[in-house]
Design goal:
alpha/beta, Rossmann fold, Coagulation Factor XIII, Chain A, domain 1, 2 domains, 6-stranded mixed beta sheet, 30% helix, ABC_transpr_TagH-like, ABC_transporter-like_ATP-bd, ABC transporter ATP-binding protein
Length: 466
Amino acid sequence: MSSNDIAINVKNVKKCYNIYHSPRDRLKQFVLPKFQYLVGKESKNYYDEFWALDDISFSVKKGESAGIIGRNGSGKSTLLQLITGTLTPTSGEIYTHGRIAALLELGSGFNPEFTGIENIYLNGAVLGLSRQEIDNKFDAIAGFADIGSHLKQPVKTYSSGMMVRLAFAVQVQLEPEILIVDEALAVGDALFQKRCFQQIEKLTSDGVTLLFVSHDQESVRTLTNKSILLDRGKQLNVGLSSEILLEYRRLLHKEESEYFSKLAQDLASKKEIDNIATNKEEPSVIPDISNNEKNDNKNQSRTDKLSFGEGDAEIESVKILNSNGEFSNAFNPGDKIKIRIHCHIKRNISKLNVGIRIRNKEGVKIYSWGTLNQDMAIRYNNSDCTQFWKRKFSAGERFFVDLDFICNLGTNLYEVQAAVSLEETPNYLSQRILHWQDEAAFFHVNVVRDEYFFGGVIDLKMNASW
């Protein structure tokens, strides 16, 4: 790959902050090491080091869309500031090729005392545009921001929504070669977010390089084709967005499992102390719910790498059946589709939910549903139908759940993701994944053009009248 093809190149970047416990320590650090050096003593540091980033390396090609994902505190915003040049790395190198437009922290790049109009010209000048070029783009910027007469008011009077509207409008209308977007878009309303994503897609289709940070996994999956996973300042992996997002979900699940395991241990310890206090001899059993995470990923098959969970239940297979109960992977709109999920229970358990998520080949979530959705409707309607959530399962038990629907989908290839989860409450408010399987099954939908034709991702079954 030629260096001319690279828009962003990050090589072995590290960023360290000095953390002082008091202003006095900061003063000591400023004065004493120099004095210690002069008198021949070994200098002493009066601060703690915090490595916000530790050995980050990746590259983004021109015209490529890349995402950066990770939990809060993983170093995402620090990395973006290093790339845009607002921070300097402690070590390592960062190269960028092309004019950068960045939408980072809310209001960054704006002078709060200037009006919206003045800030438009200020930002344009920073990006290297002449006044005439900004004049030519002003109407487009004002139209996209859509904040009316507020453009003539100081930015310090703006709401957070107005601030992000103007900031995004300025950055995307000034034709950047590299667009960097942080979580700021989350502030805008739903309609404005839709317009932003449409504009981002237009820019990327025109060859603009995108670096996108968001906790919204669907947005990352849709807008980017590769992603970088960060955790506590370290780079865990770089690869296809779909694979990195699965690894991110697995990371979140592992930490959740560790949290519940520690909670169980704390409760068991408290119970043991109470038993001693009351002279009771009752052994406590602490389930190791994180045992499934101890497997070495290097020895996993591709199927194993596409799944995660606590392991108290397992999805053994997912099959797609037609209306005759036969295996099939090709359907037309109007056909009946049955998704059969075979499960294996590893310990006595109840309060289960078996569900699926359907995505098209572009990675867009089309639908998600499970047995708990049906149970919720049963309770709401005070029906006496049996609830799956109340069913009790024994260790070693095997069963299957059929999820039926009439196909109203547009022509595409669809992926089925399946999951069995423990729901402590019957409303999705306290969920623990026992087993999740990506790419559990696939099916294709064809629209028969001569018989019944429609466009889009789903059939709304419209009627015309006149």
